[in-house]
Amino acid sequence: GAVVSQHPSRVICKSGTSVKIECRSLDFQATTMFWYRQFPKKSLMLMATSNEGSKATYEQGVEKDKFLINHASLTLSTLTVTSAHPEDSSFYICSASLTTRLARNEQFFGPGTRLTVL
Amino acid sequence: QQPVQSPQAVILREGEDAVINCSSSKALYSVHWYRQKHGEAPVFLMILLKGGEQKGHEKISASFNEKKQQSSLYLTASQLSYSGTYFCGTEIRGNTGKLIFGQGTTLQVKP
Hints:
By secondary structure, chain A is mainly β.
């Protein structure tokens, strides 16, 4: 199957700093990438849809200025958590959408990034 | 808008069967099933695109009833490796391919 990578896998930062998370599709081009947030033992909460070359579409309740998303190319999307605070600590997962003749909008997930804000 | 999964948790012995249901209040274009192990990313299992469609993957299969806006995941002769949390992701007609995930069903298979 298609491979999606995320970097870093784990980050610990001080309150007030900004953290950038990269999501790459390694062996396919993804016109659409999605960013999710997951709390322990909870479901995947969609934060935003990222399309190459255009502004991200954020879900209701997600602060655009807090979570900056850039989709610079067909294989790279970045999520920047600006001025991070302890309540931003979470597991952030990206997915890349693969649309084929047989499988429409199949999503492949990256391994996730564990963010801890002290 | 979040689909509802049932049951919330299942404990099985190896070789037993289980069914996980996913129900939506919205009309669905497709249903996606994923399995997630603790601390890892979700792993894609299958997509169901049409009403009444059934698909299979080894001993895991699924059905999609478009009219009832429901999907079920069937795990037969369960193995220890089936343990994890199963999520259904629903794609609503007219959306951009984005998925709304259910709350998850935790499956534990014991020897």
